[in-house]
Write a structure and sequence with these properties.
Blueprint lengths: L6 H14 L3 E8 L5 H11 L5 H9 L3 E7 L21 E5 L2 H4 L15 H8 L11 E5 L6 E5 L5 E5 L14 H10 L6 H5 L19 H11 L4
């Protein structure tokens, strides 16, 4: 069944851990109501592909999940509107798992949120050229940063990756299932999924990561944020 059946309980436990930390300030938490079967079916029709079972299950339990937090005592120039588009200099801790109708859209590439993924990119991810190709190759599921986001790549078994550089970089992230993506996101407390998770920095070819095994460590995450993220 993967990670999704216990996601809400684990998410709420993570938020409680954040609220208890003396260096952390939690700004906003939103858990959407379950998506309807009509919502799910119409989302799949919009992109012309079925949703992975774990993603469908996630939306069937909560149609969007949002969290934003930062370091206590720091001022940030902007806050993210839940299920909206992050701006520059937002608080560094953000989970923005979009509602299914917003995520399963054909407009991501036109809106420049997702870069152009080519047939050869799909072949590299899935081991062969896809025939037929999926009608929509990629959508944004977790818009946690202005220039980085968790994207779903459609194929025989769709995978998640983290696009960098406003979605133009499709080659410096490892790939995971949606369930593993959730595991990672919770384990790093919504910190940057590229630098703290799947990014390989162009030092090697992308790989499929079958599981997330690094245990949660909020003190380490807070220390990384203090050193690598700014504020006003």
């Amino acid at each position: 069944m993967g990670a999704t059946p216990t996601f809400r309980a684990r998410f709420e436990a993570m938020v409680a851990c954040l609220r208890a930390h003396p260096q952390v300030e939690v700004y906003e938490v939103v858990i959407g109501p379950p998506a309807s079967e009509v919502d799910l079916r119409e989302a799949e029709e919009a992109v012309g592909s079925p949703l992975p079972p774990a993603l469908r299950e996630f939306y069937g339990a909560h149609d969007g999940v949002f969290l934003e937090w930062g370091l206590r005592g720091r001022e940030y120039a902007s806050r993210t509107v839940p299920f909206g588009w992050p701006d520059e200099r937002q608080p560094p801790g953000c989970i923005n798992l979009l509602p299914v109708r917003k995520a399963m859209s054909t407009s991501w590439r036109a809106d420049r949120h997702v870069g152009p993924i080519q047939p050869q990119d799909l072949a590299a991810m899935f081991g062969a050229m896809l025939e037929p190709e999926p009608p929509v190759r990629v959508v944004c599921v977790d818009h946690y940063s202005r220039c980085k986001h968790g994207d779903l790549i459609f194929g025989p078994e769709p995978v998640m990756m983290v696009s960098d550089d406003y979605g133009a970089d499709m080659g410096s992230s490892d790939c995971v299932t949606f369930s593993t993506y959730l595991d990672m996101t919770l384990a790093i407390f919504g910190a940057d999924r590229y630098y703290c998770g799947l990014g390989n920095g162009w030092t090697r070819a992308p790989q499929f990561m079958p599981a997330w095994t690094s245990p949660p460590d909020l003190d380490r995450t807070v220390a990384w944020m203090a050193e690598n993220t700014g504020g006003g």
